[in-house]
Amino acid sequence: PIKSSRDMTYKDFFDSVDDDDGDDDLVANDAEEDQEEEADSAIEEQNEGSMSEFEDMDEMVEHMRSKEASKKVTFSLPDDSETKDVTEVKLEKGIDPSEIKSSFEKRQEKMSKKIKSLEEALLEEKPWQLKGEVTGQKRPENSLLEETVLFDHAVRMAPVITEETTFQLEDIIKQRILDEAWDDVVPKEKPKEEAFEYKKRITLDHEKSKLSLAEIYEQEYMKLHQQKTEEEENPEHKEIQEMMDSLFQKLDALCNFHFTPKPPVPEVKIVSNLPAISVEEVAPVAVSDAALLAPEEIKEKNKAGDIKTDAEKTPTDKKRELRRKKLRKRMRRREKEKRQKLLEKMKPEQGTKLSKKAAAAKLKRLTKEGKASLLKDEGKDKALKSSQAFFSQLQDQVRMQIKDASKLKKKQKKEKALSVHKLKL
Asked: Which is an annotated Pfam family here (predicted)?
């Protein structure tokens, strides 16, 4: 019976390896086959006539078998046919079937060999080409000469000088001379620009003029309107001079690589001073120059910086202001004290009055701060009529004394504690 591809197992694809009685079975099978062949030959000799009748039947059976074989599912596994042939050869030679390996085992062996070779290649020391940046000490001698190395040129390579390049250069130079293109001039010094080019300073003459004002104005008027008699030059001489100047200039440009041309002569330009009020072209609105000034030009910038509101002020700004206020207060107090001392020296009667007022004000301030307390002398001068009033007054006095003593002790303790803290490291 032909099995379907779903019902096939491992045994259908591979031969059994662990069978110990493989050789015995094979030998027994061979003996049985020999006996069957002898029996068949005897039957064939006896029934030669009957065979002709069954020939047609055999052909039909073979045809059916070939059809069934063609319908079978086969798998193209590597080394499958080879293993069958090898096993047959080994069996013929009489090799032990336990030594015969299946195709799977052979594949596993090949794979393990390949893995081993790859591991060895990884563990081996790499050649110097694959080590990255290698110095001359780390690689073998003259090894770089055998390699084709690619690298970037930082500087532009100089062209190879040939006849063509020289001819090209000569042609360019000749063409430049014909075109009078002297554009490769490198100026040595930059000509100094005069700060007062358009508005030159007038040299004032401090000596008293011998001429009167009317005579000076008359001379100026005459200079402006009177035509000066200039000496007429020969036009040919002028032309020759110009030609010679141009020739010398060209020769200088050719012979000297760093030729510095003469600085240009500054032309006199008359710039009329603008009026105080300028009228716009778009709209006829008169604008003063004072309105165009920046705020810093009108008023100098504050040295302390920009004026800020209370919300804009940072904690540092606030502290700075507080320090300034305290300093101003201190200065005022010192000045006041100085004035008082001077007054005491000058007028002692008035000074005592002022000192009493100052003492009273100081006492008032201390009581407000809570640093001192005032004892009220209400009824001290009066005679105590009852014993209750006397004892209540006495009690108040004792209470005040106790309070003062406790305050003194606390103060002393605080001072001691502070001194101990100062001594600690």
From this structure: Mpp10
Of 123, 97, 101, whose CA–CA distance to 26 is shortest?
97
| Predicted confidence (pLDDT) per residue in 292-345, tens digit | 667 777 777 777 677 888 888 899 999 999 999 999 999 999 998 898 888 878
Q: CA distances (Å), 386 to each of 35, 383, 391, 393, 394, in order?
A: 164, 9, 9, 11, 13
| Mean pLDDT score across all residues of the chain | 73
Tell me what pLDDT residue 77 has: 47
Cβ contact 83:103 at 8 Å: yes
Domain ranges of the chain: 1-75, 79-126, 331-371
Q: How far apart are the first and last CA of the chain?
A: 106
Collapsing DSSP states into helix, strand and coil, what is residue 277? Answer: strand
Closest among 356, 397, 400 to 380, alpha carbons compared: 397
Q: Measure the CA–CA gap between 8 and 12, rounded to whole angstroms.
A: 6
Dihedral pair phi/psi, residue 277, rounded to 5°: -115, 125
Over 50: is that where the pLDDT of 243 sits? yes
Provide the sign of the torsion angle of the four alpha carbons 209, 212, 213, 216, taken in this order. Answer: negative
Query: Does residue 45 contact residue 39 with C-beta atoms inside 8 Å?
Result: no
Give me Rg for the CA atoms of the chain: 65
Residue 83's CB: how many other CB atoms inside 10 A?
20
Q: How far apart are CA 398 and CA 106, in angstroms?
A: 118
Q: What torsion do the CA atoms of 84, 89, 94, 95 make, to the nearest 10 degrees?
A: -60
Where is 207: in which H helix or E strand?
none
In degrees and rounded to multiples of 5, residue 278 shows phi and psi of: -110, 135
Q: What's this model's pTM, rounded to 2 decimal places?
A: 0.21
What residues contact residue 185 under an 8 Å CB cut-off, 6+ apart?
253, 259, 260, 261
Rounded CA gap, 380 and 419, in Å? 43
Q: How far is CA 367 from CA 362, 371, 373, 379, in A?
A: 9, 6, 6, 22
* CA atoms of 242 and 100, how far apart (whole Å): 115
Instruction: State residue 268's pLDDT score.
Output: 64
Place of tokens 């110990």: 20
pLDDT at 152 over 70: yes
Q: List the one residue out of 99, 87, 77 whose CA is nearest residue 15.
A: 87
d(C-alpha 83, C-alpha 376), whole Å: 131
